[in-house]
């Protein structure tokens, strides 16, 4: 019977190929949605795990996390530098690192921060060392620059009409180990240099200059430079990471508490109306809820496509059985039992659908890998694509459905009498 089925499939290879491709494409659509959504959840969660607590000025918690953890450009309000000074001496804090952004170079975000955060974020350097003066910078593992390369910071981006700062040129002194986060595509520089480049004096309060408020920032910087020429950055100046109440305003502070209990206490203390404190994981949970709604819509679309494919296959197989009436009648006339006819037709159709399901899982996995690669290249966040136990359950459900679907043409062939089949 197997040899007969294989011979029949070879003879009807064009129709068989259409059936396999229809099933494969419908399956691949659903599988790619599931794998991509799971990869996005895992990748973002792993990226956020490196940061315990984020403190910022009042505003959107989601935007605070997206800007400070995933380095998505946005204009954030500044909080008083006194917050950083208090955190620096808080016994519940292992370290507190300010972050300042708004500048870029060749598409890579430039992040102002401290030596402590730079050394802690990846656990070490693949080459070089941490910055030691205002004119030095450390690059993430995916930044396409060499040790010693020059970096001329641009305020904003080329697309938003940014301008290049002429006050300071950074020189790369080290490359971090890979982290699988957006920081792999970041250029880390001393926060002290960022303050000086943007003309921020101690105690000064105004909105942080991001891409959205580029023009206002340009005027503010020009006015400040006219009034305070002594704020020019010095590339050879040493770093002062002792924070006081006169520290310039900050868009965000990344905090490493000493314990889980300390983390919750700090979060409560700094949710006071003037500042907000969030666990990145909590914010991501809300985003996952929105993502889950989008996933349900996409899965519903994929399921609809699979239903249409199933209906098309039923129509195709019914027509196919009608075209094979004489062949089935001949088999019955030569003594083939009804059960054998049922088994041949059922197994032939089931094999085609099973091959389509297997090919669909392969195509869906490949599509998810490609999409994750594009996302990782643009964001720096590593998205792990892989199958889970629930995907095996999905495959079994699809094969069970295929088994039921294959029974329809088999029943039609089973009920067909030799006399009717051979009648012209």
Please outline what is shown here:
With 424 residues, the chain is an alpha+beta fold. The protein has 13 helices and 12 strands. A hairpin with a 2-residue loop joins β2 and β3.
Please tag this protein with its features.
424 residues, 12-stranded mixed β-sheet, 13 helices
Find the count of extended strands (DSSP E, 2+ residues): 12
From the alpha-carbon coordinates, what is the Rg to the nearest angstrom? 31 Å
Low-confidence stretches: 203-230
Q: Report how far apart the termini are.
A: 27 Å
SS-derived structural category: alpha+beta
Q: How would you describe the oligomerization state of the chains in this entry?
A: single chain
Number of H- or I-type helical stretches = 13
Mean pLDDT: 79
SSE series: HHEHHEEHEEEEEEEHHEHEHHHHH
Give the percentage of residues in beta strands: 5-15%
Described by the principal axes of the CA atoms, the overall outline is elongated
Q: How helix-rich are the residues, as a percent range? A: 40-55%
Largest sheet: 12 strands, mixed
């Amino acid at each position: 019977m197997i040899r007969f089925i294989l011979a029949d499939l070879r003879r009807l290879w064009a129709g068989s190929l259409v059936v396999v491709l229809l099933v494969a494409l419908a399956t691949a659509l659903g599988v790619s949605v599931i794998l991509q959504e799971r990869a996005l959840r895992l990748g973002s969660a792993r990226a956020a795990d490196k940061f315990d607590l984020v403190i910022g000025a009042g505003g959107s918690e989601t935007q605070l996390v997206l800007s400070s953890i995933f380095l998505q450009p946005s204009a954030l309000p500044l909080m008083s530098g006194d917050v950083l000074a208090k955190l620096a001496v808080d016994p519940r804090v292992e370290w507190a690192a300010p972050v300042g952004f708004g500048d870029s170079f060749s598409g890579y975000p430039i992040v102002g921060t401290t030596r402590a955060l730079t050394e802690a974020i990846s656990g070490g350097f693949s080459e070089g060392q941490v910055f030691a003066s205002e004119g030095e910078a450390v690059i993430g593992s995916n930044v396409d620059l060499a040790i010693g390369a020059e970096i001329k910071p641009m305020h904003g981006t080329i697309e938003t009409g940014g301008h290049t700062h002429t006050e300071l040129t950074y020189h790369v002194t080290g490359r971090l180990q890979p982290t699988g986060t957006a920081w792999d595509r970041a250029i880390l520089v001393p926060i002290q240099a960022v303050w000086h480049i943007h003309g921020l004096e101690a105690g000064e309060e105004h909105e942080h200059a991001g891409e959205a408020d580029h023009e206002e920032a340009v005027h503010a910087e020009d006015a400040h430079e006219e009034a305070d020429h002594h704020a020019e950055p010095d590339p050879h100046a040493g770093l002062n990471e002792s924070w006081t109440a006169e520290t310039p305003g900050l868009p965000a502070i990344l905090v490493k508490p000493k314990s889980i209990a300390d983390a919750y206490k700090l979060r409560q203390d700094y949710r006071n109306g003037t500042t907000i404190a969030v666990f990145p994981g909590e914010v991501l949970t809300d985003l996952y809820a929105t993502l889950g709604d989008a996933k349900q819509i996409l899965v519903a679309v994929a399921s609809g496509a699979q239903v249409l494919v199933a209906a098309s296959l039923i129509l195709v197989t019914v027509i196919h059985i009608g075209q094979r009436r004489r062949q089935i009648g001949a088999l019955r006339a030569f003594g083939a039992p009804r059960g054998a006819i049922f088994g041949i037709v059922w197994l032939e159709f089931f094999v085609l659908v099973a091959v389509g399901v297997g090919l669909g899982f392969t195509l869906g996995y490949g599509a998810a890998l490609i999409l994750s690669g594009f996302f990782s290249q643009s964001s720096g966040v590593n998205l792990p694509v892989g199958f889970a136990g629930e995907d095996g359950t999905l495959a079994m459900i699809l094969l069970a459905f295929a088994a039921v679907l294959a029974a329809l043409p088999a029943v039609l062939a089973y009920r067909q009498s030799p006399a009717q089949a051979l009648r012209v």
